[in-house]
């Protein structure tokens, strides 16, 4: 009987540990639509962070940037391919502080290096928290091989 209680206690403790396991997600961001970026990334991540923090769950979140999403991570529009594009400037003004807050919450932002070159984007014009050392596919494979759930925002 004592052995049975010990086994049950061990199982219950294990289940508690599993429930509190670190949660990891990588967003594949390609959309050029500012509203989709705000809803699909900013609001979703804020919701995840609020939930995880309220439930004392550790988390890691990454966003891999490519496609038409580059423009939202350019700080110096005047020295970029987006110079003079008012729609981009308005979206940047609306999103810049929200993206910065995500970074401050520990969200990692990785930008596809090949796409940057194809679009003529220099690393110097990006927000300083954006990492640009690899290609999109390399980032996504690495994040997923580390156990990150994949969420597309296209």
Are there runs of 5+ residues with pLDDT below 50, and where? Answer: 4-10
CATH class: Alpha Beta
- The helix fraction, in percent, is 40-55%
**Main β sheet profile:** 5 strands, parallel
CATH superfamily: DsrEFH-like
Strand order of the largest sheet: 4-3-2-1-5
Strand content: 15-25%
What's the CATH topology label?
Hypothetical Protein Ychn, Chain: A
Task: Please provide a written account of the structure.
This protein has a five-stranded parallel beta sheet, sandwiched between helices. 25% of the residues are buried. The protein has one domain (22-153): DsrEFH-like (Hypothetical Protein Ychn, Chain: A, 3-Layer(aba) Sandwich), CATH 3.40.1260. Residues 4-10 have low confidence and may be disordered. It contains five helices and five strands, in the order αβαβαβαβαβ. Helix 2 (34-54) packs parallel to helix 3. The chain has helices at 2-19, 34-54, 86-104, 113-119, 136-145; strands spanning 23-29, 59-65, 108-111, 130-131, 149-153. The chain is of the alpha/beta class.
Write a short abstract of this structure.
By secondary structure, the chain is α/β, with parallel strands linked by helices. It has helices at residues 2-19, 34-54, 86-104, 113-119, 136-145, and strands at residues 23-29, 59-65, 108-111, 130-131, 149-153. Helix content is 49%, strand content 16%.
Based on the model shown, name its key terms.
154 residues, alpha/beta, Hypothetical Protein Ychn, Chain: A, 49% helix
Write the layout of secondary structure elements.
Blueprint: H1 2-19, E1 23-29, H2 34-54, E2 59-65, H3 86-104, E3 108-111, H4 113-119, E4 130-131, H5 136-145, E5 149-153
Parallel strand pairs: 1-2, 1-5, 2-3, 3-4
């Amino acid at each position: 009987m004592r052995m049975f209680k010990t086994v049950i206690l061990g199982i219950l403790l294990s289940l508690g540990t599993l429930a509190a396991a670190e949660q990891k997600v990588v967003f594949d961001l390609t959309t050029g639509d500012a509203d989709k970026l705000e809803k699909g990334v900013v609001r979703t991540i804020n919701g995840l962070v609020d939930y995880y923090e309220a439930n004392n769950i550790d988390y890691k979140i990454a966003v891999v940037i490519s496609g038409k999403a580059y423009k939202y991570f350019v700080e110096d529009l005047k020295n970029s391919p987006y110079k003079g594009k008012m729609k981009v400037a308005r979206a940047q003004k609306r999103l810049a502080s929200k993206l910065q807050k995500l970074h401050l919450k520990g969200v990692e932002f990785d930008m596809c290096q090949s796409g940057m070159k194809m679009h003529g984007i220099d690393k110097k014009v990006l927000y300083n928290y954006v990492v640009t050392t690899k290609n999109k596919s390399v980032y996504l494979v690495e994040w997923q091989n580390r156990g990150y759930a994949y969420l597309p925002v296209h």
